[in-house]
Write a structure and sequence with these properties.
The complex is a heterodimer of chains A (about 260) and B (about 280). With about 260 residues, chain A is an all-alpha fold. Chain A has a single domain, classed as MetI-like (MetI-like fold, Orthogonal Bundle), CATH 1.10.3720. Chain A has eleven helices and no strands. Chain B is built from nine helices and ten strands. Classes of the chains: A mainly alpha (about 260), B alpha/beta (about 280).
Chain lengths: ~260, ~280
Amino acid sequence: MTARHLLSQLLVALALPVLLVITWWFASASSTSFFWPPLSDIVAAFPKTWNWDRITGDVFPSLGRLALGYAIALVAGTALGSAIGLSRNLRAFLEPTLEFFRAVPPPVLVPVIALFAGYTGSTGKIVTIALGCLWPVLLNAVEGVRGLDEVLVDTARSYRLRRRTRFFQVVLRGSSPQIAAGARQALSIGVILMVISELFGANRGLGASIVQFQRSFAIPEMWTGIILLGLIGFALSVLFRIVEHWTLAWYRGLRQADRGV
Amino acid sequence: MTTLTSQPVIALDVRGLRKVYDGHGRSVEAVRDLTFAIPRGELVCIVGPSGAGKTTLLRCIAGLLDLTSGEVVLDDSKVAGPPEGMAVVFQEYGRSLFPWMTVRQNVELPLKEKGLSKADRRTKVDVALEAVGLTDSDSAHPWQLSGGMQQRVAIARAVAYEPSVLLMDEPFAAVDAQTRADLEDLVRALWQRLGVTVLFVTHDIDEAVYLGQRVLVLSNRPTVVLEDVHVDLPNKRDQLETRSTARFAELRHHVYELIQLAKKGHRPESPEGEQA
């Protein structure tokens, strides 16, 4: 990957965003509308609004809750999904119930969860994020485990691999591409729920800040919050892709080899 | 494997193996009665018409499939589930190697399970890879290798495991003819060098006669052993020379005739004709 190649790729990736920002800048420059201030005003408000205090007091807690909820969903989703995928009886037993719960959108559950865990404080928020992120991971884990190549399973059995080895080295690694697909979906859902869980009640957090700005008519500040949210979501997605790139390099290679043949 | 003096003479003893598939309201008798014994260090091939239940037979012997009746005895102990001391090389080499591991890691995995020390494992893996000619590819991933090389990795893995009996389920069926010739010679070379007992299932009559000391010819379903053909070709075999000898042609002819009879439903008890 030459430097020139990398540079041209970077230019292509940045071209549209830069174009959109420029368009926004000039289209809103002469705006007198209260709710759509000029982009220059919004940019000016950025450093004022997001000082270190606010970042540590609002952004970090939000991200921390997202991280915890997401991690819980990954572990629980993978564990449960694998168990269900491996056992035909368990699958038949649980499937209808799972489908029922999957159909309920997590935002709807926020007030219900708040009944048990309260509106303020972190517990309810983490539960909401975990519950929302759980379903894509769980369902993909079930499919990934079910779709494991039977020759691979036979090989593992014929060499008498221990249960533990079979689970971690064969089942999990074999279904990791599918689980990663579920984890990617779960990340988007997690960011959304991170914000939604902070909308009700009095809270500290990124989503809560945006809503508070909106309610107190601090519109440029509100916009800065929205832009920051978008940037954070983008950064998380890039981070995910980097991690996936490293851990699933073998899968990419395998697919390329299959296509080549 | 460590105490040679106490190893039984008969490595693999199959007695009255019977397999009936029950399901969906019907039962299908795939294998009626298979009885044969393989002394230690022999290379025995199994051929049969298509649908004769060769794969069923192999899976039963490997402990991957339960028997309806009869028993399989490996080194004087009954097989119930995949036994220690047996390694299987499957036909679908691409699907039997773990794609997220390198060649070395693939060959090493069963040894880790056996509990060998790191140094021990390293030695055995090196020896196995050298035996199949893949020393240079040990850090590659299986999907980076050609089909023939992948099957060599599978063979190396089986050989490094140092099994009592090596089962091979039509291992070269999915490989091109030239590679198949090389791999056949590899199997014979490994067999002679390591002294491992080999049971080789194939649909290729030429291959069976070229490789084996004995060829077990199966009938069609429900399967029994039609004949146990003794292959008296010399020990040193060559793809060109051996295959153009008169004796090879005779044996091949004989096995071919048996297969044709098998396809028509011939059974060992009755001289000819169908049997229900």
